Amino acid sequence: MKKILFVCLGNICRSPIAKGVALNMAYEKNLDIVVDSCGTGDYHQGEKPCANSIKIAKANNIDISKYRARAITKDDFVSFDIIVGLDESNMKNLLKMGCPKEKLFKLGSFGYDNQDVPDPYFFDGFDGFLKVFLMIETCVHNLIEEKRII
Ligand code: 4NP
Q: Which atom of ligand 1 is the closest one to the Cα of 90?
């Protein structure tokens, strides 16, 4: 059983969507995986995902409203097999914090030319969340297929 961890900065916008998409796929395809998400920062510890993330996930039949934000811990680097950063800054922070290189992947490398999944929190209104959802959905599907955890 593989354990996958999605990591953004605040764990309220992007990585909860990635977790929801992966869990939804696991449910639909009966995959034996564990999925979680977290942030490199603890600014939003204990908070639910932002309203627009809940809304775009719900529009795609995924309920992320019960997720609660948490910051990454050293234990995560041991207990998870695949650690996925949403943007380059997340990747740098994760390496600085001691994430093993061989476990670390950038989500955009799975189908979006290694692009960052941009933080939709501070700009673009709801359109930003639509764009981000599509990127995340495509890349999470490709990741799960490429890593042969089906
Ligand atoms: P996320 O977006 O990393 O996709 O959860 C953020 C939301 C809020 C903040 C940072 C990132 N913040 O610093 O308030």
A: 3
- What CATH number is attached to the domain comprising 118? 3.40.50.2300
* Predicted confidence (pLDDT) per residue in 61-112, tens digit: 999 999 999 999 999 999 999 999 999 999 999 999 999 999 999 999 999 9
- CA pair distance 10, 45, nearest whole angstrom: 8
How far is ligand 1, taken at its centre, from the CA of residue 132, in Å?
13
Instruction: Calculate ∠ Cα 96-118-60, nearest 5°.
Output: 120
Q: Whose CA is nearest to atom 10 of ligand 1?
A: 10
Question: What's the pTM value of the predicted model, to 2 decimals?
Answer: 0.97
Distance 97 CA to ligand 1 centre (A): 18
DSSP state of 49: P
Number of structural domains found in the chain: 1
